[in-house]
Each structure stands twice: as structure tokens, then as C-alpha cells.
Amino acid sequence: MSTLRRYSVFAAVIATTLAAATITALAANPYDGTWRVNITTTAGTCGSGVGFNLQVRNGIVYGYGDFRVSGRVTPRGDTRVAITSGQSQATGSGRLRGSSGGGSWRGTGSQGLCSGYWNANRV
Prior knowledge:
The structure is a single chain. By secondary structure, the chain is α+β, with helices and mostly antiparallel strands. It has one helix spanning 3-27; strands at residues 33-43, 50-57, 60-63, 68-73, 78-85, 88-97, 100-109, 112-122. The chain is 20% helix and 55% strand. The chain has an 8-stranded antiparallel β-sheet with strand order 3-2-1-8-7-6-5-4, with no helix packed on it. Strand 7 and strand 8 form a beta hairpin.
């Protein structure tokens, strides 16, 4: 293999590695990590004071345990989440800033419609 060809292959490998690192860095979100979320009900009969952890990876929200979570957090902290557990479901929106945040939610529990607010802190 000629020296020029070897350098071309080496340059291509370096370029591919740098491109992959750049894509990974661009996908990272300042709000990535584990968050403790506490729910307060202000209307309806859903449970209040419920707390749980959520994970944000590359701006996508993931849950733990026996409930399904879908949602996103933008690099600015704008947050939208949907949570389902059995027949209960809720949607929420709000904003994270630094290591905390909050917003509102509404949903349907076993005893009907509910709504309230949520707050979160980085764990």
C-alpha cells in the first residue's frame, strides 16, 4: 500500500471518528440525567404528593418501574411528558432551569379527571 493511500485511509478513519464524536456531543442535552419529580393534585381525587424518578437522555424522557413514559426536554428546558400506568394517564408540560423546574399536569385516574402542578430537582 502506498504511503499516500495509507494516509488517506488514516485520514478517513480520523474524520469518521470526529464526526461520530460531534454527533454525540450535539445530541447531548444540558438537562440529561436523573430527575426527582413530585406531583401535587389541586383538582380531582388523584393521589397527591407522589414522587418518582425520571431519566433524561439526549433530551428524551424515560421512566422507571411499572409506568410508561414518553416525552422530551429541549435544550432550553421546555418539557412535555405523557405518563401511563394501567388505566391512569397524565400529560404535563413546563420548564426546567438549572437543576430544578416545574409546570402543570392533567390526567385521568381511577376516580376521574385530575390536574395540578409538578416540580422536579436534579438528583
